From TrEMBL:
<dbReference type="GO" id="GO:0030395">
    <property type="term" value="F:lactose binding"/>
</dbReference>
<feature type="transmembrane region" description="Helical">
    <location>
        <begin position="40"/>
        <end position="60"/>
    </location>
</feature>
<keyword id="KW-1133">Transmembrane helix</keyword>
<dbReference type="GO" id="GO:0015528">
    <property type="term" value="F:lactose:proton symporter activity"/>
</dbReference>
<dbReference type="Pfam" id="PF12832">
    <property type="entry name" value="MFS_1_like"/>
</dbReference>
<feature type="transmembrane region" description="Helical">
    <location>
        <begin position="135"/>
        <end position="153"/>
    </location>
</feature>
<feature type="transmembrane region" description="Helical">
    <location>
        <begin position="234"/>
        <end position="254"/>
    </location>
</feature>
<feature type="transmembrane region" description="Helical">
    <location>
        <begin position="96"/>
        <end position="115"/>
    </location>
</feature>
<feature type="transmembrane region" description="Helical">
    <location>
        <begin position="159"/>
        <end position="179"/>
    </location>
</feature>
<keyword id="KW-0813">Transport</keyword>
<dbReference type="InterPro" id="IPR026032">
    <property type="entry name" value="HcaT-like"/>
</dbReference>
<feature type="transmembrane region" description="Helical">
    <location>
        <begin position="326"/>
        <end position="350"/>
    </location>
</feature>
<feature type="transmembrane region" description="Helical">
    <location>
        <begin position="200"/>
        <end position="222"/>
    </location>
</feature>
<dbReference type="InterPro" id="IPR024989">
    <property type="entry name" value="MFS_assoc_dom"/>
</dbReference>
<dbReference type="InterPro" id="IPR036259">
    <property type="entry name" value="MFS_trans_sf"/>
</dbReference>
<feature type="transmembrane region" description="Helical">
    <location>
        <begin position="291"/>
        <end position="314"/>
    </location>
</feature>
<feature type="transmembrane region" description="Helical">
    <location>
        <begin position="7"/>
        <end position="28"/>
    </location>
</feature>
């Protein structure tokens, strides 16, 4: 009974968190445009959110190592919600928008890696599957990426900030009840994070992941535009985005079992190869049938990749180090990789067009697969290395 209740809190947090993210990602740019920001300003404010994920998770992960996630996640979630509401006070002033955006994104970046570590710890203690908890985040993303569009169509962009803040306040409330792991006693020796840095496989893993996520820059920035250029309407494009995330949900449901049977190396390698295949097909065969079919590969390019990465990190970063390992992963792979990928996609789109952009994305994923080979070399976990 207690396990069901704890799993329910975790699933609810993921659902609410990704509801907010699903409402934010598609409509942040339009909201900024409605506030009178020009394309350069919109680009800077969007990059501020992305690049905040580079440094912030590592700082929060380091603090959680000593304070515990229980003391950080609720406060970070609450300040994030307040930050969104504070955007009202900017009244379209760019510098005020930038300052507030840097603030809320700095705290927003604290929550997900620490909750991921909490969920993985809990799943291992309870003998259950991380993916079956995490999939509720994907369902929340689908619900609000589609639902916010309907709300905006009815009431305009005035619903953007309060709509997101409601879900963030809900995430804050739920975060107070998550099954955080207890901190070791003060006199208990703790493993060193520095021990992980001596294993070159960690750096190959981070580089491979950075390249795989950078390849998604073309997808997140230009897939909708590219699909519309090849005859799809905006409604059809929205359905394709939703279909891709549903495929991701399906993998999260079955993925832990598949990883236990087939192993992390096979799932990881397959994710990279199928990611390259996905971008290559979009680049060279952009017809309707192929575009629909390759959306199923979102289950590999994001679902399988993320789930395999979480399992890989859990083996390398035990116990109290898990939060810092997840934070390092989030900052390098999603923060730096995502930011560089978006910037690179903008440049290639301007100079090489859609086909060249997605071809470059396919090459990035293949290059990531090369470094992945070295990342998958065995290395010991860190539990015996004490501070």
């Amino acid at each position: 009974m207690q396990a069901d209740r704890e799993g329910g809190w975790l699933a609810t947090f993921y659902f609410l968190y990704f509801c907010a993210l699903g409402a934010f990602m598609p409509y942040w740019g339009p909201w900024l445009h409605a506030q009178g920001q020009d394309p350069l300003a919109i680009g800077i404010l969007t990059a501020a959110v992305q690049f905040s994920k580079v440094l912030a998770p590592n700082l929060w992960g380091w603090l959680a190592h000593f304070w515990g996630s229980r003391r950080i996640v609720p406060w970070a979630a609450l300040i994030t919600a307040a930050g969104f509401l504070a955007l009202w006070l900017a009244h379209g002033n760019f510098l005020a928008l930038l300052l507030i955006t840097l603030t809320f994104s700095f705290f927003w970046a604290a929550t997900l890696p620490l909750v991921d570590a909490t969920t993985m710890d809990w799943a291992q203690r309870r003998g259950t599957a991380y993916g079956r908890i995490r999939l509720w985040g994907s369902l929340g993303f689908i619900a609000l990426s589609l639902g916010m569009g309907g709300l905006i169509a009815r009431w305009g962009l005035t619903v953007f900030l309060p709509g997101i803040a409601i879900f963030l306040v809900g995430a804050w409330w739920v975060s107070r009840y998550l099954p955080y792991s207890a901190l070791p006693a003060a006199d208990t020796p703790r493993p060193r994070l520095s021990g992980a840095f001596r294993h070159v496989s960690l750096w190959f893993f981070l580089l491979a992941g950075l390249l795989e996520q950078a390849s998604h820059g073309a997808y997140y920035a230009f897939y909708s535009i590219y699909a519309e250029q090849h005859g799809l309407g905006s409604a059809a494009v929205g359905m394709l985005w939703g279909f891709a995330v549903l495929c991701e949900v399906a993998f999260f449901w079955w993925g832990d079992r598949f990883i236990r049977r087939r192993g992390v190396p096979l799932v990881f390698t397959g994710a990279f190869i199928l990611t390259a295949m996905r971008w290559g097909v979009i680049a060279w065969w952009p017809g309707l049938i192929w575009i629909i079919l390759v959306q199923t590969l979102h289950a590999a390019s994001y679902g399988a990749f993320h789930l395999a990465a979480v399992h890989w990190l859990s083996e390398r970063f035990p116990g109290v180090l898990r939060g810092r390992g997840m934070a390092l992963y989030a900052s390098i792979v999603y923060g730096l990789g995502g930011g560089l990928g978006a910037l690179g996609a903008g440049w290639t789109w301007a100079h090489w067009g859609g086909r060249g952009t997605f071809s470059a994305a396919a090459l990035l994923a293949l290059l990531g697969a090369f470094f992945l080979i070295w990342a998958l070399q065995p290395a010991p976990a860190l539990e015996k290395e004490a501070e």
